[in-house]
Write a structure and sequence with these properties.
The complex is a heterodimer. Chain A contains 12 helices and no strands. Chain A is mainly α. Chain B is an alpha/beta fold. In chain B, strand 1 and strand 2 form a beta hairpin. The chains are: A mainly alpha, B alpha/beta. At the A-B interface, helix 1, helix 6 and helix 7 of A face helix 3 of B.
Chain lengths: 285, 300
């Protein structure tokens, strides 16, 4: 166990000094703030016809207040923040192949299983901290809007916040694990990122769209896709949206709450096991 | 001396390609072992198997009495294989901190090993800004951070300037003198001759020689420069004490015991040859290496 901790400490030491990690966190934060708060607030503060059609100005403002913190934070997780988490996982695991540092890591003390477990622990820790930061930024923005507009500051209950954080962590960890698996299997960064992002932003939407309209036979396939289950899990912990405010892209209820949670957890476990088996069996050439 | 590394009948095949073919070698505790061979001979593949990075197709390896890649072995083995590999966004010192954390050792050795490889003043600079020689020295520093019993260095003097090469040779010799076992892969045969106790030569994946440097170099040769060539050669061919004759740049090099030197000269003069130069030559490891690898290549 001490080897796993040592590897995790080494990985975290690297991560906090790695510009790419901070760039991805910054991108997640900016996108979360822009789509969760800035655009709705500008829409509310602008003229009579804002960019959000079908919703009253009061509903638009209500969608940015503290009681919607879980919705606004998790809104991007099934799609854009998820894609960034996938990139993060690919960077953490695939980067070692690009620099040739796999041999440096594996010629120290820990065995391959301990190395992989330590790296994954560090990845999970970083993702957990990243989700906390996104929640914290959302809290600050929603509080600022509530104060500016003289509205009550009602945050979700501790239970709802915990459920929201847990679901968010599970979703982001799933995407990061998929990125990690691709990084290990493809032994690099560029190809995993390219394939992963195309999958998250393109293929998932395509399959979901087709299965909902012209080819309903694809629904069983749709219901096991990571993005669909991430969207369903996010939907399960989100409070009721104000009238006229649509759910964020990718957030849906195609799959039941329990099944979505189990599927997301299975993706994490399968990715970890598959990455570890690949890592242990392969020669480092 | 007990063996730190024992390799028996080690093979590694990639499909139809045999990279290492039934290699056996033994490295004793406290010796500096030179591992020589042309590019693509199988040196690095063998060293990677030694460190557990590659699984052998067949054969046995024991390192410090255990299997390669065992945490207990790795914790006392320092290595640099096929060039240094570090994180470009970290400084040299921070890279060593990462290595120390992986190895589960404290950071107390970092300043000392940076000093050892003459990087103390540049330890705070990013690895990406290092020259090839500095990167190489950082790789050696990382290999030493565990205060290892066994040090495996693959081409450690690559990219070093002459002073750096001299310092590296002295460092490796000090490591050997301090009781550590060092396995050194190198193309610099002169440096191997200077610092290694024993050498193993691998060619086309097969071990072709393993011996002490002195045994491998064998007896000295007799350089003879005399004319006319046909008279000289026919005369030398008739002298039974001359074991072998080879021509290097219009000079003849004879394998003949030192006590027969005068007899050779007498025979040449008696045959009417003009003898311009006769002197003893110590064979260099480089000469032996090329002889061995050329012979092996001609048998393929």
């Amino acid at each position: 166990m001490s080897d796993v901790i040592n590897v995790a400490r080494a990985e975290l030491f690297k991560l906090v000094r790695r510009p790419a990690a901070w760039t991805l966190l910054a991108a997640s934060a900016v996108l979360s703030q822009v789509f969760g708060y800035l655009i709705p607030y500008l829409s509310y503060a602008g003229g009579d016809s804002g960019p959000m059609e079908g919703a009253s100005k009061e509903a638009i403002l209500a969608s940015t207040l503290p009681d919607q913190l879980v919705s606004n934070t998790l809104g991007g997780f099934p799609v854009f923040a998820g894609a960034l988490a996938l990139v993060f996982g690919a960077l953490v695991f695939g980067g070692e192949y690009g620099w040739g540092t796999v041999k440096t890591v594996l010629t120290q003390r820990p065995g391959r299983a301990a190395s992989m477990a330590g790296q994954f622990l560090a990845l999970a820790s970083a993702v957990a901290v990243g989700v906390v930061i996104l929640f914290a930024l959302g809290s600050v923005s929603s509080t600022a809007i509530a104060v500016a507009q003289d509205r009550s500051i009602d945050f979700p209950s501790f239970v709802d916040l915990t459920a929201g954080y847990g679901a968010g962590l599970a979703i982001m960890l799933m995407w990061a694990s998929l990125g990690a698996l691709l990084g290990v299997v493809l032994r690099g960064v560029a190809l995993p990122i390219g394939l992963g992002v195309v999958w998250v932003l393109g293929v998932e939407n395509l399959v979901t769209g087709v299965s909902s309209s012209v080819l309903t036979a694809l629904r069983p396939l749709r219901d096991v896709l990571p993005g669909v289950n991430a969207g369903s899990l996010a939907s399960a912990v989100m409070p009721t949206r104000p009238p006229g405010i649509d759910a964020p892209p990718g957030v849906s209820s195609y799959v039941s709450d329990g099944r979505a949670l189990v599927t997301v957890a299975c993706y994490v476990a399968v990715c970890l096991v598959a990455a570890m088996l690949t890592y242990r069996r392969r020669d480092v050439v | 001396m007990s063996a730190v590394v024992e390799i028996r009948d080690l093979s590694k095949r990639y499909g139809a390609v045999t990279a290492v073919d039934h290699v056996s070698l033994s490295v004793k505790r406290g010796e500096v072992y030179g591992f020589l061979g042309p590019n693509g001979a199988g040196k690095t593949t063998t060293l990677r198997m030694l460190l557990g990075l590659i699984r052998p197709t067949s054969g046995d390896i024991t390192v410090l009495g255990r299997r390669p890649g065992d945490p207990g072995v790795l914790s006392t083995t320092g290595s640099m294989i096929e060039g240094p590999a570090f994180y470009p966004f970290l400084s040299g010192r921070d890279n060593l901190k990462v290595v120390a954390r992986y190895a589960g050792v404290g950071a107390g050795q970092i300043d000392a090993v940076l000093e050892t490889v003459d990087l103390a003043t540049r330890g705070g600079d990013k690895f990406s800004t290092y020259s090839l020689g500095m990167k190489q020295r950082l790789g050696v520093a990382a290999a030493l951070i565990k205060d290892p019993d066994l040090v495996v260095l693959d081409e450690p003097t690559n990219g070093l300037d002459p002073a750096g090469m001299r310092d590296m040779r002295a460092l490796i010799r000090r490591l050997g003198d301090s009781g550590r076992t060092v396995i050194l892969s190198s193309h610099m045969l002169g440096e191997v001759q200077q610092i290694c106790d024993r050498v193993g030569v691998i060619n086309n994946g097969t071990m072709v020689a393993e011996s002490t440097v002195d045994e491998l170099r064998g007896d000295s040769e007799l350089l003879v420069r005399a004319t006319p060539a046909d008279v000289v050669l026919s005369t030398l061919d008739r002298i039974a004490d001359v074991e072998a004759i080879r021509t290097v740049d219009d000079e003849l090099r004879l394998r003949v015991d030192e006590r027969h030197t005068a007899g050779v000269v007498r025979a040449l003069v008696a045959a009417g040859a003009d003898v311009h130069e006769v002197r003893r030559l110590d064979r260099q490891l480089e000469d032996v290496f090329f002889e061995i690898t050329a012979t092996e290549a001609s048998h393929v």
